[in-house]
Design brief:
Blueprint (H helix, E strand, L loop, with lengths): L2 H24 L8 H6 L3 H4 L1 H16 L7 H26 L7 H19 L8 H27 L25 H13 L18 H6 L16 H7 L18 H12 L16 H13 L20 E5 L7 E5 L7 H6 L7 E5 L7 H7 L7 E3 L21 E3 L7 H8 L6 E4 L6 H10 L4 E4 L14 E3 L4 E2 L3 E6 L6 E5 L11 E2 L4 E3 L3 E8 L9 E7 L6 E4 L9 E4 L18 E3 L4 E12 L2 E8 L10 E7 L6 E7 L10 E8 L5 E10 L17 E8 L1
Parallel strand pairs: 2-3, 3-4, 4-5, 5-6, 6-7, 9-15
Antiparallel strand pairs: 1-2, 8-10, 10-13, 11-12, 11-14, 14-15, 16-19, 18-25, 19-24, 20-23, 20-25, 21-22, 21-24
Helix pairs in contact: 1-5, 1-6, 4-5, 4-7, 5-6, 6-7, 8-11, 11-12
Length: about 700
């Protein structure tokens, strides 16, 4: 069959395919294809690149190469092939959309953009003999439609910010969580879901019929039902997916996306096990409750000043020792503001916030000596959703100004004096839906009366004044590596002015009087546990921060791996083990070697026989991610690199299910008479996870980032 006949055949096919495509698009609500045809829609992303490239080349041909045209039959054949591809891709996309994996107007824009590309590709067949100027106009129109359609497709696949410039963040001092009127969901759950899950399960995209951007959508579940409950003794569906190995196709978030940390996984798991209540507040939990501790830690770590390279304001100028402003989470334009240490309150700091008044959604003024002038400023924050005015000395009649804030949902006025009548008057025509209240002047019976009179408002009755004295945030040990060959100079810093940092190197905890004060870098030359703590008059001392530093007295001349690590965790090859760089607790930072399907085996070599006394393996332990301690260490020696003799073997204790995520050192001592040119090391993994683990029976991972020879 020659070019002309092939082109004519394809042209006839297009007269069938294009009407079929339009029928699918126009009557998509009435047409429900079978499972097989929906499955064929999955071919859409596989073949869509052909018409994109083909179409751009045709547009270039129309605009720049009309003086050197192809023969007519060749030209028509090429254009027919492009039109068939474009129409086929559009049809496959329509079938894919029937799986309800997406939501919102993005899918409509992408759908009709793809149809327009297909129709224009079809039109190209009939303008081959038209004027060059018309062809150029059509080519420009085609390129614009193609770019618009593919952009919407990218947003569907990778989220609405697919082509947005990345936002950089500069970390500032951590702070203690001070507004305990917030719910666990607000402070602990929503930020995790927003950062790690909503790009695939949000308003514009809902894989598996699941959306996670609001409590209402979370409760609806997905195509497999409720994600917050498990069958019988099984874990909830959400936690099951998170706990799967990262290489499993059902693991969430998918491989290649930002993974949840161990702390984030623990927060989600413990919140769900506690009943997944969206209204439980932090101050309803005991301070020693593990969920309270984890949420506080998460907020402390994630509260950061953000220097934006886009249109989001830089918050640095609004922060001081007594006022902090933070974006709710990375990428959000919503700001929370916390004032503390009322004796240092300055109204100018509040007034300065007028520059970002449209971004502020949460304001904590607990313990500040406020007046009506302050409320006049606050009422300019028209997007404010939550405010804490506990123990601020305000008159309740002044609080009527808050009713002008139409988006305000949660108000806390513990410690403000009022009578039953005054509180009743304040609640009339109030738009907020949650009130935290406590007063010596209103008894329980009076409050019950008000609660029944205002059913649209949820009351929380109780004192919430536990955070008058603030706890200082932790100091930071600034040191890239924890392994030294000779010595190391360790720097410690704190961003809050007037802080005294004290440290110890003898294993004891630092105190505010006797321990050494940090004034210059600390020189270490042997294995040392460095402990530091920050102190400041009028503040509660920081938590203890400690870090272990190791001295590696021997460096091999050669090293090579016998068993290849998992392709996802290859570090820098064999050099990872002797580069003096530790991976810390981030398993995805490229500094770890990981094994699961086989033991870890490697050989080190010296130019001359070397006497070794011990080897220490630096190992990551994260039981929730299936990463267990090394099960055993075997050492063999050789002088020719071929025949190896047993040197040492140690079986290590099994992990306890209560162990937290950590980095630990596991050691193996050698007989003192041992001296070889080559040493082979075998670190074995646990071949079957214990019965108490969700992955029982599966092999465990081992993660190693450094060996220390002595």
């Amino acid at each position: 069959m020659n070019e002309k006949k092939i082109g004519q055949t394809l042209e006839l096919c297009l007269w069938i395919l294009n009407p079929f495509m339009l029928v699918l698009a126009i009557f998509d609500q009435q047409i429900q294809p079978g499972v097989f045809f929906q499955w064929t829609g999955k071919l859409h992303p596989l073949v869509l690149h052909f018409p994109i490239v083909f179409g751009i080349l045709i547009a270039i041909y129309f605009m720049f190469f009309q003086q050197r045209k192809f023969p007519p039959d060749t030209e028509k054949l090429l254009f027919a092939i492009n039109a068939v591809f474009a129409c086929s891709v559009a049809i496959l996309g329509l079938l894919l959309s029937k799986q309800n994996a997406y939501d919102g107007e993005l899918i409509n824009l992408h759908k009709w953009g793809g149809i327009a590309v297909a129709i224009l590709s079809f039109v190209f067949l009939y303008v081959l003999n038209f004027r060059i100027s018309l062809k150029k106009i059509l080519a420009v129109l085609f390129v614009l439609v193609l770019i618009g359609s593919t952009h919407k497709g990218a947003q569907l696949t990778h989220g609405v910010n697919a082509l947005s410039f990345p936002k950089t963040a500069v970390f500032s001092a951590e702070k203690e969580l001070s507004d305990t009127t917030a719910t666990i969901y607000e402070f602990g759950i929503a930020p995790i879901l927003a950062q790690k899950c909503v790009s695939c399960h949000g308003a514009d995209k809902m894989k598996g019929d699941l959306q996670l951007h609001t409590p209402e959508k979370i409760l609806l579940g997905g195509k497999n039902g409720d994600i917050l409950k498990g069958n019988l003794n099984a874990e909830a569906g959400l936690i099951q997916r998170i706990h799967l190995p990262v290489t499993d196709e059902k693991h969430m978030p998918p491989d290649g996306k930002m993974q949840l940390t161990s702390e984030e996984t623990s927060i989600l798991s413990r919140w769900i096990k506690a009943g997944a209540n969206f209204n439980t507040r932090l101050n309803e939990l005991a301070k020693e409750d593990s969920l309270f501790v984890l949420v506080n830690k998460l907020r402390s770590a994630s509260n950061q000043k953000v220097v934006q390279e886009t249109d989001l304001p830089d918050l640095e100028e609004f922060n001081s020792n007594y006022c902090t402003t933070n974006y709710l989470f990375s990428g959000s334009d919503e700001v929370e503001v916390n004032f503390f240490q009322g004796s240092f309150y300055n109204r100018e700091n509040l007034k300065n916030l007028e520059k970002i008044k449209n971004n502020i959604v949460s304001l904590n003024m607990q313990g500040m000596p406020l007046a009506k002038e302050d409320l006049d400023i606050i009422t300019q924050f028209k997007n404010l959703k939550k405010i804490n005015l506990n123990s601020t000395g305000l008159n309740i009649s002044t609080l009527d100004l808050l009713k002008t804030l139409t988006k305000l949902k949660a108000v806390s006025i513990c410690g403000i004096k009022f009578t039953e009548a005054e509180l009743d008057r304040f609640l009339n025509q109030a738009t907020f839906s949650s009130l935290n209240v406590w007063s010596d002047h209103v008894n329980e019976k009076q409050l019950e009366k008000l609660i029944s009179k205002h059913p649209s408002i949820k009351f929380y009755v109780g004192d919430n004044l536990e955070n008058v004295i603030m706890k200082i945030n932790n100091p930071v040990i600034e040191q890239d590596t924890s392994v030294m060959s000779d010595h190391i100079d360790v720097k410690v810093k704190h961003l809050l002015k007037g802080v005294v940092i004290r440290y110890t190197t003898d294993g004891s905890d630092p105190d505010s009087l006797k321990s050494s004060e940090y004034t210059r870098p600390i020189r270490l030359s042997q294995n040392t546990v460095l402990k530091v703590k920050a102190f400041k008059t009028g503040w509660i001392a920081s938590d203890l921060v400690q870090r272990t530093f190791y001295k590696s007295g021997i460096h091999p001349d050669t090293i090579f791996l016998i068993k290849t690590p998992d392709q996802k965790y290859r570090g820098n090859g064999a050099k990872t083990l002797i580069d003096y760089e530790l991976g810390e607790t981030n398993m995805s930072n490229g500094k770890w070697l990981a094994y699961r399907e086989s033991d870890m085996e490697f050989v080190i070599g010296f130019n001359q026989p070397k006497l070794l006394n011990s080897v220490h393996f630096n190992v990551l332990v994260d039981l929730e991610a299936y990463i267990f301690p090394v099960n055993s260490i075997t050492v063999q020696g050789s002088n020719d690199g071929k025949q190896f003799k047993p040197v040492a073997n140690v079986r290590l204790p099994e992990a306890n299910k209560s162990e937290l995520k950590r980095v630990s050192t596991y050691s193996c001592d050698f007989p003192k008479a041992t001296s070889f040119k080559y040493y082979k090391f075998i670190a074995s993994n646990l071949k079957k996870l214990p019965s108490w683990h969700p992955g029982k029976g599966e092999p465990a991972w081992i993660f190693v980032d450094e060996i220390i020879l002595n």
